[in-house]
Amino acid sequence: MTPGEETALDATRLEDLAQGALVLAAGAEHSSYRASLDWARASIAEHGPVPLIRPGDLGSERMCVTVSLLGSSAALAEQLPTGEEPRRAVRALERRLGRTADAVVPLNTAAENALLAVVTAASCGLPLVDGDGCGRVLPLLEQTTFTIAGVDVAPVALATPAGDVVVVEAAGSRVEELVRPLVLAAGGWAVAACYAMDGARLAATVVPGTVSRALAAGSPGHGDPFALWQPKPRRLGIGRITAVEHPATPGADAAGGTALPSRPTSVVVSETEGLHRRFRLEAHNEVLLVLADGAPAAAAPDQILMLSAADQRVLDVERAIPGVEVEIVVIPAAPAWHSPQGRRLAAAGGLILLSPDLEPDARRVKHPDAERPEETRW
To answer: How far apart are CA 336 and CA 63, in angstroms?
Structure first.
């Protein structure tokens, strides 16, 4: 958004957002994405267009609430929403805080979360903030630029499709381990309203412009989804997947921290042009590290994506198959993620640690062959 520009998300712009939100959706389930899109379409049809506002438009007297889908996106497709979950989550948080929400901001603008934010804003009659709390995707609820800046994730209000409403208050580092069992017991997914803050603090901590970025990426005529991104993503190379490996026992991370809600995966890509390097992508929920001929080439907190060379769509590591040609792309993280606090938070529960000079510490990366992984080779 440019100064003075007013944007409303109507039915047409919603389709642009839905398409652009897939750019960061490395693990999107097609069925849950379609269910979320249908939900957003119905919300816009019932409640009308959603105003899109800049983070600085709120001011210090108004409150913004962050919303996110928690749990398994696949469970969303199996247990469809009633439509009341976002409104009930926001109202529960309002009751706990004794304040009324004035705007909604997405935790991130990838796939279901971008669409859920539209549903929440429409059903609550609130504007949507053009920004989010990540600028990318990370698997844990407390992994946000809000946390880096000292904003508490709690209280967290959860609303489930079964009609449950639960408010959780805990130290930020314990929220994930308390919330996850609740979500599983409730059927596998829930809507969370959290990170309540005033507009001034939001403007200082949010990653701005991410909704507009997704809208631009999804607009017709943009063949390159990264055409309008700043800074520009870095393209490491194009190659063919030659191996996909999974450790036999995922378990908790070696440091004893919070384990990520997925299994470790390694993807080997042989470059088919240029230097003909051998890339190894180490992933846990998402790609966390890329080695090129054994040397670190990219690492979290930057977001690393595999794009199908055929159609430029994001390829989830869980769906990587030997023989598929992919392009490896690195999207620079928001500056907050490259601060010492940001690097520590991004590495929480991950497979790698980042050294103070922003380079992956190769000494801390366990050699994948030591785990005798199950392996699928071409």
So the answer is: 22
User: What global pTM score does this model have?
Assistant: 0.83
Query: For the segment 314-356, what is each residue's pLDDT rounded down to a tens digit?
Result: 888 878 899 999 999 999 999 999 999 998 888 775 534 444 4
pLDDT tens digit sequence for 215-243 = 988 888 766 777 767 778 999 999 999 99
